């Protein structure tokens, strides 16, 4: 990946402290929207299924159409922002996201809803990495940046964990379409705030678009998630599944070859030879696999197996939201003071403990145990995001801030898509009475994802703590 020179405070007037933190607040609002939309739909899936007359595999596409497209386009969007201006691309993303949200709200069929969710993913891809790049550009001081990333992670963690609560309340009051209508006023407010407070920034040298790499990455991700979602229905050894495996291998190999030979690659694969960066990306995937497995299994178990309402199901995740909200800024401060190792170890321990609590889940498991498990997982999630984000951003040249944020966000969304697909595959053929037992491998996977953060912490510790 070639480097460019980022417009820095040395080449433009430095923003005041109040302006810098206002920029953070505006960008965090968009991040809240992206995170919320990733999880708010989860709690409404059973209601969407009843309203549109579709089964579990179809419902998984409602979630993964968004996350797969988002994951596929994040890096390209980051590069476009560096080329054409981050604020401009950010505003385009807000308009696309808002328009698609309205289309989701009025969708008459599953096909239209899935297509609109994919367009939402296009818009969201212009928000997440671009907003992070704007924040990094506005805050050149490493310590202040670490604190800002802690706040950023707190908002993102809150949005991901609060999605089910918000979704449950909206569905109870207004029906499932309201989870998409709610985006419209937030988009309008954010557009106004961006126009007033967010400065423009870009890289000085434009990079050529890597269209072959973008196409291959999208195809590889779509094929991988498609096989995971449809595998239980078509059979894991069926000719269609075998063809899917071949497509995954071929497109992945072609992507690696194209990226190695490109002058301006979509993704610089040499970065993954650096253990801190590679392990940060792997950790992001693991954390979001764990989170999304938890959210989907929680939704299906409580609503299908125990007959809870969407509102009650969403309320059950409040401990998760609390843990994420409280621990994320604390984690950001720890990263700034002592480096990433301690918060990553705490994250891994809490997530693993939460998953292990539910490996014996039954039809009548005590609600106290459920709430404890969700609190532990939410706490781990809160501790994880700041060190992972900071390590990944620090692993790339500052001039590639847009791409740095995009790679981290891509890893998160890949984890989200895999988590939804795996969780859905586990329970696709399970009736209400067998659903609790069918979730057991999922909870073991959550615990395993937590344990994976231990080697991630060791690799991240190789980087020096943030200093002024």
Automatic annotation (TrEMBL):
GO cellular component terms, alphabetically, are:
plasma membrane
Q: What is its main location?
A: membrane
Any one of the GO BP annotations? response to antibiotic
* Membrane topology, record value: Multi-pass membrane protein
Keywords (A to Z) from UniProt: Antibiotic resistance, Cell membrane, Membrane, Transmembrane, Transmembrane helix, Transport
Q: Name one Pfam family in it.
A: MFS_1
Reply yes or no: does the keyword Transmembrane helix apply.
Answer: yes
Membrane spanning residue stretches: 21-41, 61-81, 93-116, 122-139, 151-174, 180-199, 211-229, 235-256, 277-302, 308-330, 342-361, 367-393, 414-436, 442-461
The organism's place on the tree of life at top rank: Bacteria
Domain Major facilitator superfamily (MFS) profile, first and last residues per copy: 23-465
What NCBIfam families is this protein classified in? efflux_EmrB
Q: Which family does it belong to?
A: Belongs to the major facilitator superfamily. EmrB family.
**What is this protein's name?**
MFS transporter
